[in-house]
Amino acid sequence: MKSHLLKDTLILLICVIITLSLVKSGMLDSFLANAHSWGLVGAFMAGIFFTSVFTLTASTILFVELLKANPLPEIAIVGALGAVVGDLVLFLFVKNRVSEDVDEMIMKAGMRPHYLIKAEFLRWLNPILGAVIIASPFPDELGLALLGFSKTRTKALICISFVMNMVGIYFVWLAMNAL
Which of 44, 56, 62, 141 has the most CB atoms less than 10 A away? Predict the structure, then answer.
C-alpha cells in the first residue's frame, strides 16, 4: 500500500510540474486557443481525461473552451462517452488495487474485511456515493472504488458513468456561465 501511495504521489507531482511548465512556456495558451475548433473529437478526448485526479483540471479547461464554441448537448454526450472509456480503464485498475489496500487497512485495524463489506447500509450507500462522486467535479477514482466494492457490473458502470459524467459536464457549463 505504501508503494502505491508513493507512486501515485510522484505521478501527481510530475503532472503538476508538467502543467506548470506548459503554462509558463505559453504552450498551453496556444493549445487552448485552438481547442474550440476540435469539436466532437476534442470533447471525446476531454472526456477520457475527465476521470482522473491527474488530468481533471486540464480536461475541465478543455471542456470550457469547447463549450464556448459548440452546443452543450453535443459536447456533453460525446464527452460523457469519452469519460466512459476513461472510467472503464480506471475501473479495471482501481477496482482490485483499492480493494486490496482497503482490506489491508481493515485487517491492520483488527477487523475482518468481509464483515465491513457485508454491512447492510454499505450495500446501498456505496453505489449511490460512487455515482455522486462521478457526477461531481472531483476525480472519479474514489467513486469507481466504491462501485467496485459494491460489485457493480460493467454494464451498470457504463450506464452510471455515462449519465453522471454528462451531468458533470453540464455542471462545468453552469459554472462557466455563472462566471
Answer: 62
Using alpha carbons only, give the angle 145, 146, 151 rounded to the nearest 5 degrees. 95
CB 52 within 8 A of CB 141: yes
Could you give the CA distance from residue 80 to residue 136 in angstroms, rounded to a whole number? Answer: 13
Q: What single string gives the DSSP state of each residue in the chain?
A: -HHHHHHHHHHHHHHHHHHHHHHHHTHHHHHHHTGGGGHHHHHHHHHHTTS-TTTHHHHHHHHHHHHHHS-HHHHHHHHHHHHHHHHHHHHHHHHHHHHHHHHHHHHHTT--HHHHHT-HHHHHHHHHHHHHHHHSSS-SHHHHHHHHHTT--HHHHHHHHHHHHHHHHHHHHHHHHH-
- Number of folded domains in the chain? 1
Supply 133's cell numbers: 462522486
Query: Residue 10 is part of which domain span?
Result: 2-178
In contact, 149 and 114? CB cutoff 8 Å? no
Cell 493549445, located at residue: 31
pTM: 0.74
